[in-house]
Amino acid sequence: MSDLVADAIDMTFTTPNGDEVHALKNVSFTLKQGELLSVLGPSGCGKTTLLNLIAGFLRPTGGELSLGGNEIDGPGVERGMVFQQGALFEWLTVAENVDFGLRMKKADRRETSRKVEEWLEIVGLQGFGNTPTYQLSGGMQQRVALARCLINDPDLILMDEPLGALDALTREKMQSLVLKIWKETGKTIMIITHSVEEALLLGERLFVMAPRPGRLHKEYALPFAEWGLQQDPREIKNHNEFTQTREEILTMIWNMEEEIMGKASA
Amino acid sequence: MTAEGIRGLFIGALFIGLLLTLASCWWYGRRLIRTEKTDAVFGNPVKALGGWHWIVSGVSTIILVWLYFSWDAARAFFPDAASEMCQVAKVETAINPMRSVFPFESRLLKGTSILDRESRQINNLETQINTGAFTDQDREQLLPYIERVRQILASQTAPESLEESVVADIQSIGQRIDEQSAFLQAGVLPEGADAAIIEARDQQPGWGGSSQEIPIEPISQRGAMFAAVAAPLAAISSDFGKIRNAGPAFLADIKALDDEVKQVAGAAESAAVKDFARNMNKLLKRIDNGVVFPPGALEPIESALARLDVVKSDKQGSLKLIDAIAMPSGTIMAGNTACSEQGSGRWLPKPSDTVATFLRLSDPDVGYKGIPLLWYKEKPLAEMVGFLVPDFIADLVPGKYPRHSDDGTIPNNLKTTVLNFATGNFASPSVPVPTGHVWDSIMRVLAGLFLGILLGVPLGLFMGLSRFAKGFFDPLIELYRPVPPLAWAPLILTIFGINDDGKIFLLFMVAFAIMVISARTGATGTQLSKIHAAHSLGASRWQIVRSVILPNSLPEILTGIRISIGVCWGTLVAAEMLAGTTGIGFVENVARKSSDYEIIWVTIILLGLLGLLFDLFMRFIIHKTIPWRGKG
Ligand SMILES: Nc1ncnc2c1ncn2[C@@H]1O[C@H](COP(=O)(O)OP(=O)(O)O)[C@@H](O)[C@H]1O
Ligand SMILES: [Mg+2]
C-alpha cells in the first residue's frame, strides 16, 4: 500500500536578509491510498509549503515524509501535481502537453497516442488534441493539466488551488470531474483550496490549518464526497449537515484571521 | 524619342500621378474622419490606427518632396529651362563686377563705403598718436600728416578732380552697355546662331546627361540671345575695372606724403613712430587705387545697368517664374566650361538619376570598383571543401608524408590523398555561389549573427540557470558590452585583419552580448510552476532545459536576434567604411570621397531596404514561432 506518511514535519524558511519564517510546525498525518483529502486554511498558513514538501520541491527542516514506505527525496512521477494556473507549456498543443511525461520517458509512440486520446476523452476534451493551449479557456486548461498529470499514472495527486481562478459554473463542473476521476481511478488525492464549500465537497477528510506557525488545527471526516458521486452537488450544498459544518469552519477561519490581524497590529 | 525625353515624360507623369494620389487620399481621409466624428472621442487610441490611405499619402509626399527639391520635376516639365538659366547666369557673371560697385544688391555705393572705411583708419591713426607711446615732439611732427592724408582722400570726391579722359571712358562704357540692352531688346539673333542652336541640341548632352551638369552652349532662341550679350558685357566689365580716379597730381601728392613720412620714420628712434609710418604707407597704397569717384561721376554707368536690368528681366519672362517655383532653394550658376546647380540638387540627386545609377551599378559587368553589387560566380566545389575541412586531419592519418624519390617523382600515399582532399586540391564540378558588395555585407552580418547565436544562447541559458555562470561570466560580458562596438573596431581589425575575419568577429561580439543577455532574461523569466510541473512529470535536468526553458525563452531569444541584426547591420557598415575593399559601406565611403551623391544615395537606400527586409523577416518568424506571446 502506498500511504503518505508525514511525521512531525517542520519547515523553517530563512529569508535572504536572515529572518526566519516558521512555515510549518510539527505536522503529522497519514493519508491512506485512495483517500481524498482537502486542506483549508487562511492565507499564509503553509498549505502550499506542505504541498511543495510532499511534491519534493522543498525539503523539510525537520521530520520525515514518505510515500509507500520510501522517503520523499526530490520530485517524482509517482506524485503528480496540478497547479493553480495550469502551468501548461504554451508552445505545445493540448496533446503534446498531455503526453509530455510519456515523451520524457521515451515511451512507445503508438501507446502514447492511444493514452492521450483516452485521457482527453475522460476530461472531456476529445478533438482538441491539436489546439494550441493558449487558445483554451481557463476551465479547459485545467482539464489539460489534469490529463497531463494523470496520464503518468501517479500514486498521489497533489492539487494547489486548482480551481481557484475559474468562474463559479466552470468550477462546479470541474469539481464533478475531480470526483469522477477519484471514483474511477481510485487515486489518492490531496487538494488545497481556499473555498470552504469546495473543501467540504471534495474532501473525504478535511484538514483545517492554522497559521503562525502553520500547523494542523482540526480534522474532519466528511460524507459529502461520497454523496457527490451520486447526487447533484447543489443539492448537497443545501443539506443541513453541509451548511452547519460550513458555518462552523467559516467561523473558525474568521477567528484565526482576526487573531492574525490583532497580532499584526499589536 | 530620346532616352531623355522618355525619362522626362515618365517623371512628369509620376509627379502628376503622385499629386493626384495625395489629393485623393487626403480627400478620402477627410471624408472618413467626418463619418467617424459621430462616435469619436478625442484621445481614443483606436482612432490613431492610421489606415492605408495615410500610408500612401506619406509615401507620396516623400517622393514628391524628393522629386521637387532635387529639381527632377523641373527637369521633366521644363527641360530647356536649365540651359536658358545658364545663359542668363553667364550674363550675370559678366556684369556682376560692375553691379557690385553700385547699390543694387548692397546698401552703399562702393566709393562711399571705401571712403567711410579709410576715414575710420585715419581716425584710428590719429587716436594712436594721442596715446602715451608718442612723445609731444613726435605728436607735433606727425599730426599734420594726418591732416594731409585726409585732404588727399577728400580730393578724390571733388568733381573737378576727375580727368577729362576718365569722364569720356565712363560715358563710353554707359553707351556700350546701352548698345547691348538694345540688342537684347530687339531680340534678333546674329547670323548663324540658329544653326549653332540646332547643333548644340544634337551634339551636346542634355541637363544631367553627362558629368557636366548643364552644358554651356545655348539650345534655344532665348538662351542664344543671352549668350550673345554675355561675351561683350564681360569685355565691358573688364574695361570698367580699369577706370581709375587717380590723376598725376593726386598720385604725386600721395608719393610726396609717403616719402616724407618714411624719412621721419627713418630718422626716428621710437618704435611707435616707425609703426605709424608703416600704417600710413599701407593706407596710402590703398588710397592710390583710385576707386573713389565724385558722387555723381559714375551715374551714366549706373543708369545703363539699371536699364539693362529692366530689359534682362523682361526677356527672361517665364524663366524667373520657373526658377522661383520649380527650382526651389538655389539657382543655376555659370562656370567656365559648364553651368551647375547650386541648391538642394547638389546633395540631393534626382530620383531618376539615382535609379539610373543603381541600374548601371547593378550590371554585373560594371559593378563598383570591379565588383558587382549582387551576382553569382562559378566556384569549384573543391574550394569550399578545402575551406570547410580542416587540413590537420591529414596529419592524423597514420604513416608519413612521402619524400621525393631518386628520379625526382613524388609518390602518392593515403596521407597525400587526404591532404589533397582537405586543401581542396582535386578536380570537381563548379557551383554558382553569390558574390558582390551586397552579398558580402549580408554574409558578414549573417556569419557574425550565427556565431553569436551559437555561442551566446547556450551561455545565456547557462547564466540564467547557474549562480556560478552568472557570477563568473557577467564581468566578462559587462566589461566589453558597454563599449560602443565601433570603439573596438580598430583593435579587432588589426588583430583579425581588415577582411571578412575581422568584421565577422566584430559583429560576433555585438551579437554575442545581446544574445547572452536575452537568453539569460528568457531563462530567468521561466515560471517556477512550469519547471515544477516538468519535474513532477519526470523530466531530467537536460530535458527541462531543452523542453521547457529553451522554448520558454524563445520570445526573448528571437527578440534578441531581431535587435542583433539591427545593431550588426549598423556596426558592419561603419566597419566597412573604416577598412576593407568590399561591402556596401565600402561603396558608400569611396563614393563619399569623390562626392558622388548619387551612389551615396543608392547605398543609403539599399542599406535601408535590406535593414527593413531583415526586420520584416524576423517579425514574420516571431509571429510564426511564438503565436502565444501576449495571449493566455
Ligand atoms: N521561499 C520562502 N522564503 C521565505 N518564506 C516563505 C517562502 N515560501 C513561503 N514562505 C512563507 O511561509 C508561509 C507559508 O506560505 P504558503 O505555504 O505559501 O502559505 P499558503 O499557501 O497557505 O497561503 C508564509 O508566511 C510565507 O511568507
Ligand atoms: Mg498557497
Description:
The complex is a heterodimer of chains A (266) and B (632). Helix content of chain A is 41%, strand content 24%. Chain A has 266 residues and is α/β, with parallel strands linked by helices. Chain A folds into 2 domains: 4-78 and 156-265, 3-Layer(aba) Sandwich (Rossmann fold); 87-153, no CATH class. In chain A, strands 6-7-8-3-9-10 form a 6-stranded mixed beta sheet, with helices on both faces. In chain A, strand 7, helix 6 and strand 8 (188-192) form a beta-alpha-beta unit. The longest helix of chain A is centred in the C-terminal third of the chain and has 26 residues, at 240-265. The model of chain A has no long low-confidence stretch (mean pLDDT 86). Chain B has 632 residues and is mainly alpha-helical. Chain B has 4 domains: 3-77; 81-348, no CATH class; 380-433, no CATH class; 436-625, Orthogonal Bundle (MetI-like fold), CATH 1.10.3720. Chain B is 69% helix and 4% strand. Chain B has 25 helices and 5 strands. In chain B, the strands form 2 sheets. In chain B, strands 1-3-2 form a 3-stranded antiparallel beta sheet, covered by helices on one side. In chain B, strand 2 (330-334) and strand 3 (338-343) form a beta hairpin. In chain B, helix 7 (164-186) runs antiparallel to helix 9 (221-242) and helix 18 (437-465) packs parallel to helix 21 (500-524). The two termini of chain B are 64 Å apart. The model of chain B has no long low-confidence stretch (mean pLDDT 89). Classes of the chains: A alpha/beta (266), B mainly alpha (632). The A-B interface holds A 52, 55-57, 74-77, 79-81, 83-85, 87, 89-92, 100-101, 104-105, 132-136, 141, 145, 148-149, 152 and B 527, 529-530, 532-540, 543, 547-548, 551-552, 554, 626-628, 631-632.
